[in-house]
């Protein structure tokens, strides 16, 4: 299964699972663009593939993560001073 993150103003809004067959071109090769187009056709917006095993794009995308155009970045959490 492939995972795609919806990007809204540079922030991940949600992550969905897409069947690998959706990504396959006529030769059986997986193409991210096919999966992104599938998601856009169904839900609108911008979609980027993410890796559940974090093998590319820095990490697995999570809701609230920043998308810098190449990688997903966890938001900085500030801990209040005591």
Contiguous runs where pLDDT drops below 50 for at least 5 residues:
none
As a percent range, the share of strand residues is: 25-35%
What radius of gyration results from the CA coordinates? Answer: 14 Å
Return the structural class: alpha+beta
Q: What is the first-to-last residue Cα distance?
A: 45 Å
Shape: elongated
Number of helices: 1
> Order of helices and strands, N to C?
EEHEEE
Output the strand order for the largest sheet: 2-1-3
Largest sheet: 3 strands, antiparallel
Helix content: 10-25%
Q: Could you say how many structural domains there are in total? A: 1
Total number of beta strands: 5
Overall average pLDDT = 93
Written overview of the protein:
The protein is of the alpha+beta class. The protein has one domain (2-73). The chain is built from 1 helix and 5 strands. It has a 3-stranded antiparallel beta sheet with strand order 2-1-3, covered by helices on one side. The mean pLDDT is 93.
Key phrases:
82 residues, three-stranded antiparallel β-sheet, two-stranded antiparallel sheet, 1 helix, 5 strands, 29% strand, elongated
Concise account of the structure shown:
It is elongated, with a radius of gyration of 14 Å. Helices cover 15% and strands 29% of the residues.
What is the fold's blueprint, element by element?
Elements: E1 2-8, E2 11-18, H1 32-43, E3 46-50, E4 66-67, E5 72-73
Antiparallel strand pairs: 1-2, 1-3, 4-5
């Amino acid at each position: 299964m492939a995972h795609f993150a919806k990007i809204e103003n540079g922030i991940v809004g949600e992550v969905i699972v897409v069947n690998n067959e959706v990504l396959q071109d006529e030769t059986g090769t997986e193409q991210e663009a096919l999966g992104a187009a599938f998601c856009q056709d169904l839900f609108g917006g911008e979609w980027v593939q993410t890796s559940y095993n974090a093998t590319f794009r820095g990490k697995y995308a999570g809701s609230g993560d920043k998308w810098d155009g190449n990688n997903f970045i966890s938001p900085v959490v500030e801990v209040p001073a005591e």
